Amino acid sequence: QVQLVESGGGLVQAGGSLRLSCAASGMLFSIDDMGWYRQAPGKQREWLADISTGGGTNYAGSVKGRFTISRDNAKNTAYLQMNSLIPEDTAVYYCKFNIRAMTTKGIIGGDYWGQGTQVTVSS
What we know:
The termini are far apart. The chain has no helices and eleven strands. By secondary structure, the chain is mainly β. The strands form two sheets. Strands 2, 4, 5, 6, 9, 10 and 11 form a seven-stranded mixed sheet that branches. Strand 5 and strand 6 (about 55-60) form a beta hairpin.
């Protein structure tokens, strides 16, 4: 069984910063790509950034230059440093890891999601 636990959300004023964390635990064989998404009320879930096992990163245009994704492979954790926050960044933020998990049927790969953490940016 694999679990992703997010932390670091909260309320911040426009222009402020937050750092989100997402830690994986359980029967992990390996973790490949790690990514962050968000979903604002009434909108579809939006991809923000991802990072490969080698550290290569990609960003959505809406956050490029303001958000930074990183990972600590020893801790099975991804981070999202969010700077220069604006009210439009208000949303529930989710992490998604591509994980190969150890199961009774062998090693099986798949995508796993965190539970989400609320980020609210006040104007």
